[in-house]
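Hi both,

Apologies for the delay on this - the queue was longer than expected. I finally got the 2-acetamido-2-deoxy-beta-D-glucopyranose-bound model through. Below you'll find the protein sequence and the ligand SMILES exactly as submitted, and right after that the structure tokens for the full complex including the ligand.
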Amino acid sequence: MERGLSLLIAAVMLFVAPGVQAADNFSFATNATVNITNTGCGKTKLCIQTPDNCDPAGNSSCFFASVAAGNTTAPNGTELMFQLSGNSTGYIALGLTANATQGTTALYICAQNSSNNASFFFAARQRDNINNTLSTFNATVTKIRGQVVNGTIQCEFSVPNLNATNTRSADSTTYVVILGSGTFNGNDFGTFTTSKTTDPLNLANVANPTTASPTTTKNSASGALHSHALTVLLTVLTLFILKTA
Ligand SMILES: *[C@@H]1O[C@H](CO)[C@@H](O)[C@H](O)[C@H]1NC(C)=O
Ligand SMILES: *[C@@H]1O[C@H](CO)[C@@H](O)[C@H](O)[C@H]1NC(C)=O
Ligand SMILES: *[C@@H]1O[C@H](CO)[C@@H](O)[C@H](O)[C@H]1NC(C)=O
Ligand SMILES: *[C@@H]1O[C@H](CO)[C@@H](O)[C@H](O)[C@H]1NC(C)=O
Ligand SMILES: *[C@@H]1O[C@H](CO)[C@@H](O)[C@H](O)[C@H]1NC(C)=O
Ligand SMILES: *[C@@H]1O[C@H](CO)[C@@H](O)[C@H](O)[C@H]1NC(C)=O
Ligand SMILES: *[C@@H]1O[C@H](CO)[C@@H](O)[C@H](O)[C@H]1NC(C)=O
Ligand SMILES: *[C@@H]1O[C@H](CO)[C@@H](O)[C@H](O)[C@H]1NC(C)=O
Ligand SMILES: *[C@@H]1O[C@H](CO)[C@@H](O)[C@H](O)[C@H]1NC(C)=O
Ligand SMILES: *[C@@H]1O[C@H](CO)[C@@H](O)[C@H](O)[C@H]1NC(C)=O
Ligand SMILES: *[C@@H]1O[C@H](CO)[C@@H](O)[C@H](O)[C@H]1NC(C)=O
Ligand SMILES: *[C@@H]1O[C@H](CO)[C@@H](O)[C@H](O)[C@H]1NC(C)=O
């Protein structure tokens, strides 16, 4: 049984190990007009702001994010659609994690590329929550649009097939959301500085997000997000272990 367990852990580590292929290969519309306002907050979208309740429309000191849930295709997961607005000479980012003080965060990054006429740029990184280092992250992100207006970065993007229950005993759409920013020189993203960290929120429950059931991290080595592939891998491994034990 011990052999089985270490095999299992090794497999999980392998799956989540950094070094996943660089994925700065997103296609997106630059200079796409995105209209991000706080209209609909608490009704059609869940809004996370700093300062509290600020309106991103015409206000560069408002750091704003919103989330709306799209279709759910069980067991693959739920599509979540995000908006992000904030001023930065580098990047602003939204992170999803199980616990901001352990494991990893999936960071979705909207930036202005100072080495390309301050044009909009999109990327994804995995952040280590302990030492705050960023590593490449093979994320699937769709419907990316963004613009940089007067130093304010505004973007929209969609993450399909999110399913938190693969790593935690919680609602499949429950995450801690982190907002933050950093520098970007056209090649490297500087240290991520956190502006806001939420409690665990059920991102699909706009009216009452904090009624999320308490999260217990099942596997602290993983933390952030996993595709359906991990479930399949674990199932196969469990069967294998049961067979060999
Ligand atoms: C990254 O994702 C692409 C598309 O899903 C996949 O083809 C590729 O194998 C993945 N790379 C790694 C290292 O997981
Ligand atoms: C980036 O996209 C191009 C064309 O879509 C593809 O040829 C290339 O393999 C991709 N690179 C990575 C690292 O995914
Ligand atoms: C985006 O818009 C800015 C300002 O209107 C302009 O200077 C820049 O050339 C545009 N970039 C692209 C890629 O269209
Ligand atoms: C932006 O959205 C708001 C509310 O959704 C709407 O009132 C406004 O007309 C829109 N502005 C533009 C330029 O589309
Ligand atoms: C911008 O937002 C901040 C914080 O909510 C607020 O104090 C300020 O009055 C707003 N400015 C404008 C022009 O709306
Ligand atoms: C950017 O936002 C911060 C607050 O988040 C504010 O203090 C600063 O004045 C803003 N900078 C500009 C250029 O608007
Ligand atoms: C949800 O699915 C329906 C039917 O497939 C589709 O028409 C709709 O655009 C989807 N919604 C989103 C947000 O993708
Ligand atoms: C779930 O994902 C798998 C693999 O990406 C795909 O083949 C399948 O069609 C998806 N199922 C649904 C219901 O979308
Ligand atoms: C999330 O994954 C679990 C198993 O990993 C599955 O039972 C459940 O149906 C999935 N939920 C959604 C909404 O896809
Ligand atoms: C997050 O992890 C810390 C230990 O790193 C733990 O003390 C805390 O209870 C965890 N929070 C949640 C909500 O699980
Ligand atoms: C940060 O921690 C991860 C694993 O916890 C480790 O792989 C990485 O080397 C560390 N980075 C630094 C700069 O310490
Ligand atoms: C950009 O800032 C300048 C000076 O503050 C202002 O006159 C202009 O209207 C702003 N442009 C937009 C699109 O907000």
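Main takeaway for now: Confidence is low (pLDDT under 50) at residues 1-23, 217-245.

I'll put the files on the shared drive as well.

H.
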